[in-house]
Design goal:
By secondary structure, the chain is an alpha+beta fold. The chain contains three helices and two strands; from the N terminus they run ββααα.
Length: 64
């Protein structure tokens, strides 16, 4: 979870990043946390778009 500050550095909204990873991913990219997220993105390792949508729908139900 990150508090992002766009527009002049004033906190404006919160980002929740849901990215499935495991120990194999951490070993493959020799990273964890935000560095792992960046490394996976640079390598084109993105979750299935449909699965992302299903997770978002479920989170809306739970957090609604």
């Amino acid at each position: 979870m990150c508090l992002w500050s766009h527009a002049g550095g004033t906190p404006g909204h919160i980002h929740f990043v849901v990215q499935p990873v495991g120990r194999a991913d951490m070993a493959r990219f020799d990273a964890f946390g935000p560095a792992l997220q960046v490394a996976m993105g640079e390598a084109g390792c993105f979750p299935d778009v449909g699965e992302v949508g299903r997770v978002c729908d479920r989170m809306r139900e739970v957090l609604g």
